[in-house]
Write a structure and sequence with these properties.
Chain A has 305 residues and is α/β, with parallel strands linked by helices. Chain A is built from eleven helices and 14 strands. A six-stranded mixed beta sheet of chain A has the order 6-7-8-3-9-10, with helices on both faces. Chain A has a four-stranded antiparallel beta sheet with strand order 2-1-4-5. A four-stranded antiparallel beta sheet of chain A has the order 12-13-11-14. In chain A, helix 3 crosses helix 4 and helix 3 runs parallel beside helix 5. Helix content of chain B is 63%, strand content 8%. In chain B, helix 10 packs across helix 11. Classes of the chains: A alpha/beta (305), B alpha/beta (382). At the A-B interface, helix 2 of A face helix 9 of B.
Chain lengths: 305, 382
Amino acid sequence: MTVAIDVQGLDKSFGGRRVVRDFAIQVEQGRITGFLGPNGSGKTTTLRMLCGLLTPDGGSGTALGFDIISESWEIKRRTGYMTQRFSLYEDLTVEENLQFSARIRGLDRRRERVDSALADLGLAERRKQLAGTLSGGWKQRLALAVATLHEPELLLLDEPTAGVDPQARRDFWDEIHVLAARGLTVLVSTHYMDEAERCHDIAYIAYGELLARGTADEVIAGAKLSTWRGEGPGVDRLSNELMKDPAIEMAAPFGLALHVSGSDPQAIERALAPYRRPPFHWSRTEPTLEDVFIHLMGGARDNFQ
Amino acid sequence: MTPQVGQAFSLDRMMAVLIKEFIQLTRDRVTYAMILAVPVLQMLLFGYAVNGDPRHLPTALLVQENSAFARSVVTSIANTSYFHITHQARTPAELDRLVRTGEVQFAITIPGDFTRRVLRSDKAQILIEADATDPTATGSALAALAQLPREALRHELTGAAARPAGPAQPFEVVVHRRYNPENVTSYNIVPGLLGIVLTLTLVMQTAIGVTREQERGTMESLLATPVQPLEVMIGKLAPFVIVGVLQTAVILLVAKLLFDVPMSGGWLGFSLGVLLFIIGSLGLGFLISTLTRTQLQAMQLSVFYLLPSILLSGFLFPFRGMPEWAQALGSIIPVTHFLRVVRGALLKGQDLADMMPSLLALAVFVCAVAALALARYRTTLD
C-alpha cells in the first residue's frame, strides 16, 4: 500500500490548552477516512496541521511524502482544503471564484478547467451569480469544486456537509467516492453517523487523542460493547434510572426505543432484570457506530478529567 | 397596531440589552482601549501641543554692517519672543536657501548702509522675508514687528544722534511674504489635505481589506494555497496605488480650478513623495491588519493613527508652534514629511535637493512598515 499520510506524536496547544496530544495516524492512498469525535476534540486542528495551516508544537511526519513542517509548501500545492465555514469570496461570482483559485494555483488551461468544473457542478447557468447568494447546497458544491480544481492528491474536508440537505449530502458523497476511486486520498471530519459509514476508514478522536481506528465494522467490534434494545411505552424515560447502575455505561434513547450498552453483558443482564416486565420488551442487538462513539466519548471524558 | 398584553416598556428587557452591551464592550480590548485612549490623547495633543500663536520661530540673519544700531535692532527683534535667531547667513544666497528649504521661518536682512541712512533719515530699511506658506505661523510674529521701528533705536537716537526732523520712524520694516504673498490659508490647507485624504483612504482601506479576509474566513482558504506573503501583499496593495494616484490627480485638479493654489513646480520630488507616501500608507494599513482581528478594530486603529497625523503634522496647526516633545513626535509621523514635500513643491517650487531630508524620511517609513508587515504576516493560522 502507498501511505499518503504518516504522522506521529503531533501536539498542539492554544493558550495553554492542549488541543491535540501525541497524535499518530497513517492513511492509505485512495482511502476516504472519516474523522469523528465530539466538538472541540481537535479534528479541525489536526486537519490544519496536516496541510500546513498550523505548525505543530511537537511531532513529525509526512503528507504525500513531504515533511509536514519543512515542506508544507509542497503539500499545499497538492492538497485541496475545504474549510468548515464557507470561505469563498461572497462578493465574487461563481465563475470568478473558480478563476481566482485557478490563477492562484498557477493552473494551465484555466478557461477549460473552469468551464468543465461549472458544467460538472451544474452551475453553468449560475456562473454569473454572486457566490454569497447561493443556497447552502450550492455553496458547498462550489467549495468542493474550488478545492479540487487543481486535481489535488489529498483532499481535506472539514465538516463539509454541515447544514446541507440530505439529497445534496448524498450527491456530495457520491462525488467524493468518484474522486477517491481515481486515487485521491480524502480526510473528512463529520458528525453524521451515516457519513461515517460511507467512509472506508474511521478515526475517532476525543480530547485530542485518537481512540479508535479502522473500518466501521472494526471499530464496532473493537469497542467490545454489548447492547440491548428496549421497546415499549415510556422505555425512553428509563435512561436516567438505568444509568445509576455502574454496569450500564450508556443508556440513550433512539426515538421511542432505548439503547443500553456496557462492557460486561452479564452485569447488564442483572441491571436490566427489574425492568423485564410489561410494557417493556428487551432484546440483545448489535451496537451501532453511534453507540460505540458515545461509549468512547464517555470513556475519554473520564480519562480527561 | 394595538399593543399586545405585556408589550409596554419593560425595564428588565431594557436592562437585559444594556448589560449584554456592557459585557460586549469589555470583551473587545481594542475598543476598550480606544474609548479611553482617544479622549486622553486628544486632550494631551490639543491641550499641550497645539498652539495657534507660535513663538520662538527659527530665524536667519544676514547683517551686512557691524554696528551698534544693527545689534540693537537684532536684540529688539529677539525680544519680541517670536523670533529665535538660529542661523547667521553670510550671503543673500545662503539666506534664500534657508527659507526655501524651510530650515527657517524668517530671514532678516540688515543692509550695509543701515546706520548711515538712519542718521540721515534717508529711508532706512530692514528686510524681513517670511515663509508664508502657513499664514498662521507667521501672522502674529509679523504683527509684533509693528512697534519695532519706534522702539528699537530709542536709546541710540538720543543726544547728538537725535534727529531734529524727518519721518516719524527712524527706519522701515519691509516684509516680504514669500510663497503666499496674499496670506491665503487655503494655499496651505489644500495641499495638506492631500496627505490627510491619502492617509484616510489608503491606510483604512487596506487595513480593513485584509482584516475582512480574516473575518470572513477567506484568509484560511488563501493560506491553504501555495501563495507567498509578498505575493499576497503586492497583489492586495497594488490596486490601491492606482486609487491613491487617482485621488492625488483629483485633489490637484480641484486645488487648481477652485482654490487657485499655486503650482510652482518641483514635480519630480512631488511625484516621488506621493509614490513613497502611498506605498508607505498601504504598508501601514497592511501592518495594522496583521495586528487586528476584526474590521472594526482595524478601523479604530486607523483612526488612532489619523488623529496625530492631523494634529501633530503641521496640517492644521503650525508645526513650529508645538513644544519640542510634540515636534519630535510629529517628526515620526510620515504625514509631516509628506506635507513638507507637497507644500515645498507646490508653493515653493523646491528642487529635489531641497526635499531630500523629507523624501529620505518617507523612504525610511516605507522600508520600515514593509519589513514589519512582512515579518508580522503569517502564512499559518498559528
